[in-house]
Write a structure and sequence with these properties.
By secondary structure, the chain is an alpha+beta fold. Helices cover 33% and strands 41% of the residues. The strands form 2 sheets. It has a 5-stranded antiparallel sheet, with helices on one face.
Length: 168
């Protein structure tokens, strides 16, 4: 090989190696992002399943705040769902047992509604009185950091749950 051929070969080889390295980095980041998104979605679904089941079985909403719901549960005990803005967690508290349902939750809001509909629509009438509450709406957004930066955010999860066992 001559010196010119060696330099051309090294240049072309370097370009090929850089392309392979950037493709590997991009692919690795994409797989990490997809795995993270799937994990966030699974955690959100599990939390929503637990909340839906518990709220439907509750008999009464005792107190309401945009970050805390307190119910009288089917067994007469207190059931609390609480969002901690500092820790970014949603917890289920039943008696002395606290279970964290969501972690890394950037935003969570509870709303409550009455039984009746807004005339001309399928939306329920909003209320601030917990004694009139028949449905609870919960909405949240979660995200995580990948490689030091916040790359993906799970789409907003929203659900409206009707208290089925509530006495009229």
């Amino acid at each position: 090989f001559t010196l010119v051929e060696l330099l051309v070969t090294m240049g072309v080889g370097s370009i090929v190696m850089m392309a392979i390295a950037s493709l590997s980095l991009y692919t690795g980041r994409s797989f990490a992002t997809m795995a993270n998104y799937v994990d966030l979605d699974n955690a959100s679904r599990a939390a929503l399943d637990i909340m839906t089941s518990d709220i439907r079985q509750a008999t009464f909403l005792d107190s309401f705040a945009t970050n805390r719901l307190t119910f009288t549960d089917y067994d007469g005990g207190e059931l609390v769902f609480e969002y901690n803005t500092t820790a970014k967690t949603l917890s289920r508290i039943k008696g002395d047992v606290t279970k964290v349902l969501l972690r890394e939750c950037d935003e969570l809001v509870f709303r409550m509604y009455q039984r009746n509909f807004i005339p001309g629509s399928y939306d329920l009438v909003s209320t601030t009185n917990s004694a009139l509450c028949k449905a609870v709406d919960v909405s949240w957004t979660c995200s995580r950091r990948i490689l030091g930066s916040r790359l993906n955010t799970e789409s907003v999860q929203t659900a409206r749950v009707v208290i089925r066992k509530q006495q009229d």
